[in-house]
Amino acid sequence: MSDESANAGPMSTAPAGVVIEGLHKSFGEVEVLKGIDMSVEPGQVVCLIGASGSGKSTLLRCVNRLEDPDAGSITVGEFDATHADVNLDAMRQHIGMVFQQFNLFPHLSVLENCTITPRRVLKHSREKAEAEALHQLDLVGLKHLAQRRPAQLSGGQQQRVAIARALTMQPNLMLFDEPTSALDPETVGEVLSIMRDLARAGMTMLVVTHEMGFAREVADRVVFLDQGLVVEEGPAEQVIGAPTQPRTQDFLRRVLNPLGK
Ligand SMILES: Nc1ncnc2c1ncn2[C@@H]1O[C@H](COP(=O)(O)OP(=O)(O)OP(=O)(O)O)[C@@H](O)[C@H]1O
Ligand SMILES: [Mg+2]
After folding, report:
1. What is the per-residue pLDDT across 85-122, written as a single tens digit (0 to 9) for each?
2. Which of 105, 198, 212, 229 has the fewest CB atoms within 10 Å of its CB?
3. How far apart are alpha carbons 19 and 39 in whole angstroms?
4. Is 175 part of any domain?
């Protein structure tokens, strides 16, 4: 670790890059990740695409060590995520994660959902945490719903709360695992546009998605994963618009035209 990183406090919001090398992960006999090499430059957006079961969620979960890799290395900013001595609590404070199923606390208000972690983990006062939460809720257009419970919101609104909640921790990296897959079609756009704004603001983002339009417009790079290996990667325009590998071509054909010709 450099001197600079040692001085970087938990509220440092410089975007953090991710470097993954030789990542292997098995569940029992099943090898799910078979040697993944990929990276996300600080401030860039990488979309991870691939068929169901190809290992996308497992890869994402290894980055913040919700899964323990079997081999390989992952660095997140200045953190060596796979080092035995890594301070996981400190590292995870810098990483926001948004899931398909929102994972909001149903018994807490929107505002309480957004203040509980800054209060408990960052030890912020109620006033400071609420001010920051209301600021983030305002940015996703939901400040006026701060007193509601999650069940009183649409899916799209709940996912926007989940994004605001993650941002209250001032992360340097955001991980998204199919954030729009559980949404009604008419609310997908409102979540994608929040993500696009976040990308434009310079957040480093690793996004598992089937939204090819979003990937094409927002991603700096697209990585296609198949059966635990990176089969193709490159600029979004190239991987989605003109893939060179037969497996990428086949996958995109099925995603873009599910009923076939
Ligand atoms: N905790 C676990 N225990 C055992 N097997 C698991 C576990 N998590 C994932 N797997 C298996 O690993 C493989 C990859 O799963 P993963 O969830 O990473 O795929 P995915 O690409 O995210 O798929 P999807 O698009 O359906 O979300 C699957 O075969 C899955 O059944
Ligand atoms: Mg998944």
Report:
1. 999 999 999 999 999 999 999 999 999 999 999 999 99
2. 105
3. 4
4. yes
